[in-house]
Amino acid sequence: MIVAGLLSVILSALFLPGIILRTKSIASGRKGPGIFQPYRDIAVLLKKDSVFSKTTGPLFRMAPAVSLATVICASFFIPLSRYGALFSFDGDFIFFSYILASGKFFSIIAALDTGSSFEGMGANREAFFSMLIEPAFFILMSTFIMATGSTSFKEIYENFTVTGNHIVIIFSIIGVLVLLQIALIETSRVPVDDPKTHLELTMIHEVMILDNCGFDKALIHISTYLKMAIYGLLIFNVTVPYNLGIIQQSAFLVLTQVLFAVTIGLVESFRARNKMNKNPKYILTVSAVAWIAFAIILIMTK
Amino acid sequence: MSDETFFISGVFCLSLLIFLVPGQIKYYLSLAILALVVVVTSYLSLNQIFEKTAVQATTELNIFPPDGLKLIIDRLSAFFIIVVNITTLTGLLYAKGYLRPYYKVKNDIHMSVHYFSYLLLYFSMLLVVMLRDGIPFLIFWEIMAVASFLLVIFDAEDRSILKSGIGYLVQMHIGMFFILAAFLIVEKKTGIMSFDGLKNYFAYNPDTFLFLLFFIGFGIKAGFISLHTWLPEAHPAAPSHVSGVMSGVMIKMGIYGIIRVLLYVQDDLLTIGLIVLAVSLFSGLFGVMMAIVQHDIKRLLAYHSIENIGIIGIGIGLGVIGLAVNNQVLAVLGFTGGLLHVLNHSLFKSLLFFSAGSVYQATHTRNIEQLGGLMKRMPWSAALFLTGSLAICGLPPFNGFISEYLIYIGMFKSLPLSDLYISLLLISAIIGLSLIGGLAIFCFTKAFGVTFLGEPRSAKAGEARETGMDMIIPQLIPVLFIVLIGIASTFFVRPLISVISDAFAIAAVPQSISASVSSLNAISLSAGVFVLISAALLFYRYLHLKNKKVVYGPTWGCGYRACTPRQQYTSTSFAYNYLHIAKPLIPTTKVMPEITEEEIFPEKRSFESHSEDVFRKAVADKPVEWMWKMLKKLAVMQTGRIQDYILYAFIFIIIALILTYLKVI
Amino acid sequence: MVNYLIVLFALTLVYFASTERIVNYIRLIGIQGLLLCGIALFELSEVNVLNLVLIAAETLLVKTFLMPYLLYRIVGNSGVTKVHRLAMPAFYTLLFSIFALLISVILADSMLNSFVSIVFMTTALFTIFVGLLLIITHRLIISHIIGFMVIENAVFLFSIAAGNRMPVLINIGILLDIFAGVLILGFFGLRLKSHSNELTKLKD
Amino acid sequence: MGLLVFFISSFLTAISVLIIKNRTYIKSATVIFALLLIGFMLYCLVNPDKTELGWFTFNSSGVLLLAVLSLLILPVIYHGFIYTSDDDIKRFSIYHSALIALITFMAGAYLANSMTVLWIFVEATTLAVALLIYHDRTEIALEATWKYVFVCSTGISIAYLGILFLGFIYGRQDAASLSFDELSGLINQTNPWYLKIAFLFVLVGFSTKMGLFPMHTITIDAHSVAPPPVSALISTTLMNVGFIAIFRVYSMFASSAILGFMNNMLIISGILSLLISAGYMLKAKHLKRMLAYSSLENMGLVAIALGTGGSGYYAAFLLIILHSLVKSGLFFQMGQLSRVLHTFKLDETGDYMKLYPAGALVLISGMILILAFPPSGMFIAELFIFKGLVSAGNWVPVIVTALLLLFVIYALSTRILHIAFSPARNIPAPVTPEKVSKTETITQFVLFAIVVVLCFYQPADLVEMINKSVSLLPK
After folding, report:
1. Is there a contact between C135 and B661 if contact means CB atoms under 8 Å apart?
2. CB within 8 Å: C202 and D143
């Protein structure tokens, strides 16, 4: 059952964007499009011709494909609670976070290649904020390692569910909180970046893909959806109770993913975007929360 | 005469021949000599690492047998010899193209001095790594400084290069004084002036003070944080092939010295480990934070060497802490990560300096604010610089990731096992290392993006042409090694673990280390998968777009028609929001004459901002200025009047008599 | 008897500090030569006759007559009579020489060696310090030469003290006069202007 | 017997050179004299510690410095011929006779075994050197000569006082002079305060010759004015004469109670001369004066070496020998530099590498060697000095010397590299550089090669000779 992790990622990637769209439109009193509307847009994009800017070089054309490859490669490591991931080795979360970082690296350079000041601004913000979020993920992972004593995703989530005492509950709550924040920042949702804004000056991720078109834009959308699914699955693994069989677990998976999508939709409808120079402070709070989790585990176990 | 003595004296006379040989043949002669020595020494060191399985076995060579130099190659020096060989060979191959325009400008003797000091630098680095007893070690340590000084001041017509070269020489001399003082203390207590004397010195006397002396002496050469003041000056001044070799390999001699001393340290390892870890964490962070605000590409790379030295130092510091709390996993993984990063850094840093050199040769400027759009004009150098920056940021398919992974996994594995304080240390190291990784990505996206992508910002960048193939091909050697280590990392990590266990006499390699070595195979596998997937996607994209119509138009400018290259993001603007949080540590001054009210039609204005290095001012500039002024005030004796000259003698006698009378002297 | 001559010698030293006219300096140098000759004759009883004659001749001829004559010639053709007005006023030089006497007394007393009588030691040390002071406090080259001659007399006085046991030292003391001669000849030969004080171009 | 032959023949050549006013004769006579000196040196080497003519013994320290002198004599004469080639015959002959006289007196001073004979020869060298300094007959040369002669004579008379103090201790009727071995026996009963004054006077007196702190000023002026081969001699062999004088007195008093006092005095005057030379080098504007200050700095180092004791003595001799070789090489190069650049002022010189590359190479390698960077043997000497200081445990001189050496390195390298590479700041008048043939730099490269070899391989008999000359000093 090694492929379970990958399958669940693809499944949730199919549903998540649609549900988010639907929750946002219901919250704002509209009926909202079908669940698979985002994928219909992607299908339209795939059929389009492509327009490239004169200033861009070969790198700009290569970047979307490579960043999608990084996300696909990252999704191989995600386990479905007890059922193993495609690859798993000691410290695979290091490879996971660095492969995502190289994806970001390529998208940032592609943005700079277009030579427009908007894309430069987006690239600068993306680089700056992703630099600030790096420590949060690593501190969270070290808390899990302190709690479970093993260093790869699969073993962490196996031992994680087994202990079942009150420490686990605290960590699952904090884990969900931190992972949710990281997911929002990584997939550039509301508190840090607003996907629906029209003013280039306020965008971060959207403005970096201004000049992509057709096939490349589709690839980028797919990679964002996949990344969202990956984080959804990570949140699921943290919260799943240990004594469930395979069927109950998949039902619980669907429940958590829908809940995850709905929360994102609600957050986007009811919360405004942060002021741009407030973002560094906001992102640092995420690392602070993770640091508190680590401090707790340190005092408890040592 | 034994064959080693014959070989060494023969090589030295051959290199003296360079002075007599005219023109281009100088280059080929020095290349032949270098290649010969590279082959011999690499054979010696490879067989030392792989064949000599006996514990602590060493190959011994003695030159001028009775009391001449005694060279000992153990596994540690063998590793460093290989690191030195790779980069120096690529440096000289690259120099063929880089130095061609200089033949017209420089005269014959100047070129032969350059080639001779290049070979001298190479030989002295080899000998520094092989020597154990004090005086020859110090001699070749200083010859290495003098040779690199002569290389740095190659195009000395420009006064600022001369100034930074001399500053470099003086600071290397300070480093030598520290090491000399340390050796003399050892010699005073134990009577032997050599590294072996350290063993019984450390047995009876406190270790930290002497280690600190050694650490400062070697740290000045390595470029740890407050000792780094020469690095951002010397590297940009040197010609690119020299700065590639210097920052790739010569800095590592300082690291070699620190490790060599650590081999002999017996007690209070924890405090030493703490010092090394703290200093390297801070140099890593400060190095990359300073690198982000630089405009000159070679200064940016120089500050980045400080960051990578910090990462190596973190590896070594963790190794020492592992030894202190005898946590074998942390010790072996920390040292292996540190040593592998020594090899990795020498590869991608020299690659970056060489491609920056080709950019400099094509555009004659190092200020990235004036470059841009070079990707289309110099595709090869751009591709090489890209691989270098991917590797230096530690991104997966390349070698930088492997050494950072080893350091990370060492920390994560020992987190659950260690007590409260060690875990606090480890978590701070983890946070530091991840921040360094993020900052490195921030810095190199800026460097690569602003230099190679977008539109050319100046005429110089506009007319840049790709450099000759003879400069591109040598740079492929480090690229080959980078990819090789990235993909097939176990071939490199396993011998490194044997080097560490032999050096630090850690007998049994515990089970968890062999587990993390097997995970390296998994990493290579997943890196291969990643490359395959991206290749597949690109191929599918090619197929998909083959029969589609492709139209070219201007970049999206929100409908503004008259976009100019000056509107692109420059390096200052890219680092703008970062500067807000880094304000206390990096004071930037903005020079912008503001527009007064009565100025109705304000004329052309220019904005420029530059940031200085807090440490340089505090550690180097202020004390030197104060002493300089004081010394100048003292020099008033030469007044030209005879009576003053006799007065000095008179006063000297009177004061001496009074002092002796009062029994002071 | 020798002690009276030495006290006279010390007296001439005090006058050195108080006069300002170069002519007085030259006269004092002549008197010192004479006194030295007297001291030498009285002191050196055991020295063989030939040596004694040589010393007497040297001190009498050279120190009392030849040197002052040459100095008169220099002062004559260069027309300088008074010490350069920028030199330190006589009052302070007098103070310094008294202070120098104090030091030489303390020094001679603390040396407490049995070889040289205390009177010889103090006057010799006093003469050295006055010679040095003469050079230090004056700007004119001519007064530098006179200061040098005073030092030379001090050395000669010392060698007389050791003369009974080591006659060789006296002959070597005389060698010093050659230096003085060279200086004066240099003065004549190279047309150095005695009042010239612009000998200060070589400075940093 | 050999010494007598040497003295008479040198006296005759000096007189003949003065009288016979024909150029080729003078040249050949000087060359013959040089070969004579080398032969005499070999003669001294052959029978060590032989006493000749009563007052001269060939002890190892004297013969060592004589060997250095004989090593330098041929290049001095060669560069002297080049420098004085366009002088009129009168000055030519005076120059060479004074040169021969100077060399003979120096040889005599090295080998003297009694203080009075040594003192006489030192006095004689002053007269000989005065003639040489005044060779150019310019206004400044006159001033420098006058100052040199006057201050040296005052200094020597002060030194003579010190010698007289020794004479008093001696007190016995028959001995014609104060030979060292008898004296050292008597030294330790006399009261130490008396010895201290004697040593003080000797140190201040001979510091004019050695160019040490109290009376170093006139040697600086003499260097900047004298013709290059002569300033090469002054800054090396003449300073060795001053060193040997102080060393003789030091070794005599070494067994007495005032050893501590002497060490402290030497270290203090060494550090003060380092301080002054560092200060002046930082604002030096004239190349030859800067080299003179570097000699002052090296002599300061020698004094510190002598004052540290233990391995310092060996370092002092090694430093003296190597400094003589490197400094004379640099001063020979000054001769060629003046012909190429026509000025020594630092802000009017520049681009030397373009005008005369071989000379620039000599300048740079000389700089590296004089600043005691490893290829030069002086690094070993400095290492031994620091070793002596550290084992004696006094850390203050170590730190102060290291600091001042750094400033000296900075000052010297900025100026010499400025001359070699960067263009001149303000050239008053465009002057066509004279074409100097490369062969003239051979002498300097040979001297530098010796210094570099001495760094890696010290020949056994040199080491044995130095150890013998410091054998009677306390370990």
Report:
1. no
2. yes
